[in-house]
Amino acid sequence: MASAAPDPRLKQIKVKTGVAKRTAKDVESYRKELVQQSSRIETMKAQGKDAYDIKKQEEVLQETQAIIPDCERRRDEAMAQLEALLDSEKDLNESEEYKAAVNTMETIKSSR
């Protein structure tokens, strides 16, 4: 006998959780890159590297700085969508997907 089809709401929770994780990871990655790039520029300046090379690295730094606010906005949107979905699907709060989503939200909120 075939088992009942899985609840499509659980799949939505899983997808939105994945989006929230990925966007939070993007923000973290760009922040790390920002620190590394700043350090690289300072090292290049201290070593008296070519001004053109330093300028190019500063352009890379500016690009990274410009990307972070957009990544944060996308992360915040993903979190809001996940939170709204969880609020509307409280009857699924015993499922593994729901629990994982709540855990992910708490982790992301604590790392902001």
Written overview of the protein:
The chain has about 110 residues and is mostly helical. Helix content is about 80%, strand content about 0%. Helix 1 runs parallel beside helix 3. It is rod-shaped, with a radius of gyration of 20 Å. It starts with 7 loop residues before the first helix and ends with a helix.
Give structural attributes.
single chain; 112 residues; 0% strand; mainly alpha; 3 helices
What's the shape? Answer: rod-shaped
* Class from secondary-structure proportions: mainly alpha
Contiguous uncertain segments of 5+ residues: none
Total beta strands: 0
> What radius of gyration results from the CA coordinates?
20 Å
Percent helix, as a range, is over 70%
Mean pLDDT: 93
Please describe the biggest sheet, giving its number of strands, its sense, and whether it closes into a barrel.
Answer: none
Order of helices and strands: HHH
Number of helices: 3
Distance between the termini: 48 Å
Determine the strand fraction and express it as a percent band: under 5%
Secondary-structure blueprint:
Elements: H1 8-46, H2 51-88, H3 96-110
Q: What's the short version?
A:
With 112 residues, this protein is mainly alpha-helical. The protein has 3 helices and no strands.
